[in-house]
């Protein structure tokens, strides 16, 4: 019997260690450590709202996904497959896995894409455009100034004695660049003085609807240019705060008509203004009544149920939908309470603290609008409302003709 020669045993190659500082954000970074969950060496990617990236521009993302954080990690599902030669058998080392990605032999550095995107976003900044609608005296400008802790809206002291209420609805847009933690945001506040202030308010929503569609049209014309800008200026309205008067009874016909007509072209977030005029019991009853009336009228406010991406989103958004409309109080004045300076409204019986959740729901609105859903508001605007307008326009005209640079400059004048 011939001697059996044992197969050659090759030593397993050493796995290179992950470089100490690759993919780790700096201590001053506003983002937590992030990764992709590939091969056991990573962490989960952040939700789209974690990184504010200008949607619709030719920014830092060129993948096949519509949002930041989505679609990352699918390109590595075949990494390491078919790399080993056939030796003595027909097995493949690093074969396909039916459950997803393959095991990596060492650190690649894919998780650094999050840090790369963060750096680029911090350099370019991003846009956010918010519209406020409601009749005068509801504190619209004051609330926006409170949200962003700066004088970003027009004078919040109300109408001056010599200033007349507009006979028609006007559109006034004011832009500011605000910066926090190295992140720059161009904030545009669109005010609508004159809305709901007339005896006859028929069709008073038409100037607002016209303005919203004009911004979509402006963006569409930039897109069909033969030579497009690297970054298209985004003036589209990402969010419309609709202020409901704290009557404690029901919605006005104007309220339901406005939201019904514009809910399919802009993200509407209803809020109950000056909630400190209602008791806690009155406030809860009024909120339930408003939700029921909106549901009976078929009005969908943001976040819409049909746009929930997964069960986690649905669970989070269900809690928000159950709390809406938020009953808020705005103030840009500070008072001393228990040794601390707080924003509030001083009354004969005490101080209403704006950011105290026991006093009003301003903190919930701020967290929802800025800290968790700001990026999603931009994405829904671009992927749903703008795409609906774009498809309609292209179907009407049989496709828009490309616009020359000279025509574009002339239209911007």
TrEMBL record:
GO cellular component assignments: cytoplasm
Location comes to:
Cytoplasm
Q: What range(s) does the Septin-type G domain occupy?
A: 124-396
Principal location: cytoplasm
Q: Which InterPro entries match?
A: G_SEPTIN_dom, P-loop_NTPase, Septin, Septin3
Under the heading PROSITE patterns, the entry gives: G_SEPTIN
Gene3D superfamilies on file: P-loop containing nucleotide triphosphate hydrolases
Listed GO molecular functions? GTP binding
Q: What's one Pfam family here?
A: Septin
Write out the biased-composition intervals (Low complexity): 52-100
SUPFAM superfamilies found in the cross-reference section? P-loop containing nucleoside triphosphate hydrolases
Specify where the region named Disordered lies, as residue ranges: 1-100
Keywords in alphabetical order, please: Cytoplasm, GTP-binding, Nucleotide-binding
Q: Which family does it belong to?
A: Belongs to the TRAFAC class TrmE-Era-EngA-EngB-Septin-like GTPase superfamily. Septin GTPase family.
Q: Which protein is depicted?
A: Neuronal-specific septin-3
């Amino acid at each position: 019997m011939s001697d059996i020669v044992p197969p050659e045993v090759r030593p397993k190659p050493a796995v290179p260690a992950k470089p100490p500082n690759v993919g780790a954000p700096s201590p001053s970074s506003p983002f937590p450590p992030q990764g992709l969950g590939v091969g056991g060496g990573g962490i989960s990617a952040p939700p789209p709202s974690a990184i504010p990236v200008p949607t619709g521009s030719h920014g830092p993302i060129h993948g096949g996904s519509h949002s930041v954080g989505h679609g990352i990690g699918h390109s590595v599902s075949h990494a390491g497959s078919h790399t080993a030669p056939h030796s003595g058998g027909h097995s493949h080392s690093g074969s396909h896995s039916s459950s997803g990605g393959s095991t990596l032999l060492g650190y690649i550095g894919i998780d650094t894409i999050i840090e790369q995107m963060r750096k680029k976003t911090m350099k370019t900044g991003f846009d956010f455009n918010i519209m406020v609608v409601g009749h005068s005296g509801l504190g619209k400008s004051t609330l926006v100034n409170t949200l962003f802790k700066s004088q970003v809206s027009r004078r919040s002291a109300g109408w001056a004695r010599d200033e007349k209420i507009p006979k028609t609805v006007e559109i006034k847009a004011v832009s500011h660049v605000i910066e926090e933690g190295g992140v720059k945001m161009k904030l545009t506040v669109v005010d609508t003085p004159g809305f709901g202030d007339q005896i006859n308010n028929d069709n008073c929503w038409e100037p607002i609807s016209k303005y919203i569609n004009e911004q979509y049209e402006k963006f569409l014309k930039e897109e069909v240019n033969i030579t497009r800008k690297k970054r298209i200026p985004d003036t589209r309205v990402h969010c419309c705060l609709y202020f409901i008067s704290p009557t404690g009874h029901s919605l006005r016909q104007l309220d339901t008509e406005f939201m019904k007509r514009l809910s399919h072209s802009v993200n509407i977030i209803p809020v109950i203004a000056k909630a400190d005029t209602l008791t806690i019991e009155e406030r809860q009853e009024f909120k339930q009544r408003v939700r029921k009336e909106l549901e009976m009228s078929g009005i969908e406010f943001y976040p819409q149920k049909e746009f929930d991406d997964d069960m986690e989103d649905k669970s989070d958004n269900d809690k928000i939908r159950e709390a809406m409309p938020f009953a808020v109080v705005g103030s840009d004045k500070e008072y001393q309470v228990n040794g601390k300076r707080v924003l509030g409204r001083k009354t004969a019986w005490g101080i209403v603290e704006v950011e105290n959740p026991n006093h009003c729901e301003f903190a919930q609105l701020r967290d929802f609008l800025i800290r968790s859903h700001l990026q999603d508001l931009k994405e829904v605007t671009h992927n749903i409302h703008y795409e609906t307008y774009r498809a309609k326009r292209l179907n009407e005209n049989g496709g828009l003709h490309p616009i020359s640079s000279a025509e574009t400059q002339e239209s911007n004048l």
